[in-house]
């Protein structure tokens, strides 16, 4: 890396000052405690970053990216986490934006990319179906060409997508659909469509997760008309595009910054919570688990950086990116499990006030909940999904074994 320590320090200070001066205090506090932000709060912070030109650092500069080298992006991420700034990006900036910048037609790029930057368009991902998850190529949502009275052609889409995160906040969805059921292989009959969520025939069914949050939806598409120019890439070539999108996804699913934030939370619990009169940070079981996680996280961070540098140098990243997702998602689960173990019964979703009349209520550790305790259980359940979304751990193991290790 051809950069001096002084350059790193100057840039670090610039980002730190920006976060300190522009992140509203209520948002910082929510983010520090791991409480979900409202859509409006997320937008407020994203608008601050956008106005500074830092909303999508990894995008091509032509579309509002920064052109930063990998080290600047790493420092930037670090400082956002250290300043308790919310994670930004999501499907819009991490997936469909870079995808359209690479595979979209000039018209699609001109239309969609500025609207993502202006925060007008929010996207969701319509890949999974009730009977197609890991085996995504078996998807059945069908798109058939139809000619309108004025002679123009469009697709008519019928089917259903499931586990569609954030569809209730999104105004566009990118979908994989079957355009040729007779193709030689299931992969060869799939196309990639961009669909306006306001199109007649689209309905949503909310799905409440085990964590109690409304994250998922089932999306029903009934005779939904989609103009042909909303297809990305050639007809029946959608699988190749979707696969490259998974590459973007897996690089980001290492979740280094998010892991760092959560581990910092565990550290602060260790510094403040006692077990039998001894601070957790001095308890061997806690020290051992915390240190192991820290070492694994820093190893992952170094590996992600080297992958990013390779990608920057023009190298196409192959199936080995699966290891980043695999390790990042496992770490995050273990960190949240340690949080719950460290805070103990306080993390149970009980009515603490109801205990006041019981004799054991004298144990103030139970009645007075640690600020991190209220969200600890739901966040732990939430992270169960991280080893499933974007390709489950079992699938990652299989791919790594076959395609990387040649087993
Ligand atoms: C938090 C979260 C967010 C998501 N967001 C979205 C979204 O926005 N859009 C979207 O399209 N989808 C989304 N998904 C869906 C996700 O992509 C699928 O859940 C995932 O691909 C697994 O598919 P499935 O749920 O159908 O499980 P299945 O494929 O039915 O798998 C069930 C189990 O069998 C195992 N298994 C399956 N096949 C094999 C195999 N060949 N070898 C070994 N083990 C195997 C799996 O690992 C898993 O443990 C999300 C999921 C989660 C958890």
What can you tell me about this protein's structure?
This protein is of the alpha+beta class and 407 residues long. The protein folds into three domains: 5-88, no CATH class; 123-239, Beta Barrel (Butyryl-CoA Dehydrogenase, subunit A, domain 2), CATH 2.40.110; 253-404, Up-down Bundle (Butyryl-CoA Dehydrogenase, subunit A, domain 3), CATH 1.20.140. The protein is 47% helix and 15% strand. It is built from 13 helices and ten strands. The protein has a four-stranded mixed beta sheet. It has a four-stranded antiparallel beta sheet with strand order 2-3-7-6, with no helix packed on it. Strands 9-10 form a two-stranded antiparallel sheet. α10 (322-343) runs antiparallel to α12 (373-384). Bound molecules: flavin-adenine dinucleotide (FAD). Flavin-adenine dinucleotide binds at residues 124-128, 133-134, 163-165, 385, 388-389, 392, 394-395, 398.
Determine the N-to-C terminus distance: 34 Å
Please identify which CATH superfamily of the largest domain we are dealing with: Butyryl-CoA Dehydrogenase, subunit A, domain 3
The strand order across the widest sheet is 1-4-5-8
**In the CATH classification, which architecture of the largest domain applies?**
Up-down Bundle
Which molecules are bound besides the chains? flavin-adenine dinucleotide
What proportion of the residues form beta strands (DSSP E)? 5-15%
Structure summary:
The protein has 407 residues and is an alpha+beta fold.
What keyword list fits this structure?
4-stranded mixed beta sheet, 407 residues, 47% helix, binds flavin-adenine dinucleotide, Butyryl-CoA Dehydrogenase, subunit A, domain 2, single chain, Butyryl-CoA Dehydrogenase, subunit A, domain 3
């Amino acid at each position: 890396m051809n950069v001096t320590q002084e350059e790193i320090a100057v840039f670090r200070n610039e980002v730190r000052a920006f976060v300190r001066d522009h992140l509203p205090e209520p948002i910082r506090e929510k983010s520090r405690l791991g409480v979900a932000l409202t859509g409006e709060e997320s937008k407020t912070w994203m608008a601050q970053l956008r106005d500074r030109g830092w909303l999508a650092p990894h995008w091509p500069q032509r579309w509002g990216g920064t052109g930063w080298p990998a080290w600047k992006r790493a420092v930037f991420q670090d400082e956002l986490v250290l300043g308790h700034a919310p994670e930004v990006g999501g499907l819009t900036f991490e997936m469909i934006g870079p995808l359209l910048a690479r595979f979209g037609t000039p018209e699609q790029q001109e239309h969609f990319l500025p609207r993502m930057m202006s925060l007008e368009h929010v996207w969701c991902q319509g890949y999974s179906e009730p009977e197609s998850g890991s085996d995504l190529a078996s998807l059945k949502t069908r798109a058939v060409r139809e000619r309108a009275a004025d002679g123009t052609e469009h697709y008519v889409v019928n089917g259903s997508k499931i586990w569609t995160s954030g569809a209730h906040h999104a105004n566009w969805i990118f979908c994989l659909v079957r355009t040729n059921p007779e193709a030689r292989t299931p992969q060869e009959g799939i196309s990639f469509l961009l669909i306006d969520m306001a199109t007649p025939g689209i309905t949503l069914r909310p799905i409440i997760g085990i964590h109690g949050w409304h994250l998922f939806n089932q999306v029903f598409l009934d005779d939904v008309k989609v103009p042909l120019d909303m297809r990305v890439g050639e007809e029946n070539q959608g699988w190749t595009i979707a696969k490259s999108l998974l590459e973007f996804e897996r690089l980001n699913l290492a979740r280094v910054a998010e892991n760092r934030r959560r581990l910092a939370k565990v550290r602060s619990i260790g510094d403040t919570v006692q077990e039998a009169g001894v601070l957790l940070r001095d308890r061997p079981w806690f020290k051992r688990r915390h240190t192991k996680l820290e070492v694994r996280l820093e190893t992952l961070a170094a590996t992600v950086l080297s992958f990013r540098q390779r990608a920057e140098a023009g190298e196409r990243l192959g199936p080995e990116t699966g290891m980043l997702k695999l390790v990042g998602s496992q770490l995050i689960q273990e960190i949240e499990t340690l949080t719950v173990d460290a805070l103990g019964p306080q993390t149970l979703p009980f009515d603490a006030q109801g205990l006041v009349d019981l004799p054991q209520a004298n144990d103030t550790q139970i009645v007075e909940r640690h600020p991190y305790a209220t969200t600890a259980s739901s966040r732990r359940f939430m992270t169960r999904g991280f080893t499933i979304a974007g390709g489950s751990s079992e699938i990652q193991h299989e791919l790594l074994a076959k395609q990387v290790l040649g087993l």
